[in-house]
Specification:
There is one protein chain. The protein is α/β, with parallel strands linked by helices. The chain has one domain: Rossmann fold. Helices cover about 30% and strands about 15% of the residues. It is built from 7 helices and 9 strands. It has helices at about 15-20, 55-60, 80-100, 135-155, 175, 180-195, 240-245; strands at about 1-10, 25-30, 45, 65-70, 105-110, 155-160, 165, 180, 200-205. Strands 3-2-1-4-5-6-9 form a 7-stranded parallel beta sheet, with helices on both faces. Strand 7 (about 165), helix 5 and strand 8 form a beta-alpha-beta unit. The longest helix is centred in the middle third of the chain and has 21 residues, at about 80-100. The termini are far apart.
Amino acid sequence: MLKRLLVTGASGGVATQLRPSLIQIAEEVRLSDLREINDLAEHEEFIAAELSDQAQVDAIVQGCDGVLHLGGISVEDTWEKILVSNIIGMHCLYTSAQKFGQPRIIFASSNHAMGAYKFTDMLDASALPRPDGYYGVSKVFGEQVASMYHDKFGQQTLVVRIGSCLPKPKDPRMLSTWLSPDDFISLIDRTFSVEHLGFTIVYGASANKRRFWDDRLAGHLGWYPKDDSEQFAAEFSDLTPYESAIEQGLLTYQGGVWLKAPLITNS
């Protein structure tokens, strides 16, 4: 068990789902975000931080022996906003980790780093990135920062290309990409308990029957997700049949409709 786990982006949707179970992972949990969190449990503390400010990131990383990096912009946005939160912020985090003992890091990457692949493609960790927007580009950058810090300095990181971490799928595409909160918690536990993590890429999806990602290259983790989205499949058989989802573009690319959406600009 960790002494203190840092969670960035702690007021976001994924972190909110995971928070109640993080007591299984660490004795203390340090939550950080720009938006304050007031409903703290006994084992939690909150420190606000701007991820692009090196001094503020230093303050939240110091004293932690593990990091769950969920922070940054989690949807497509302008290049200017993505640059500050997701790219400069990632660099600041790894700079801080170097200063304060190289705690293991879980980097919340995204399926959108690979979103331009067809829905019918089966991918493993050796597949080349094919981002579907600025957000996806920022996740590819983050993965490469983690890779470089591992090769150059030995910083250990788990890259999780998160599919759809929700209590249950919201559309037919998510029957392939769904990651249950319980399976994510079990992945976090394996990350901090496995003897050697190195630099490892995992596709963040549960044991879905319709899964199109292959995690055999991360077999050393010993992570075996248990949940299957098939239990929810009947909910979409009438409301959103697969034929309709294909027409909407949801089942053409692994990133859904993101590849065909126009880039967001300030103009």
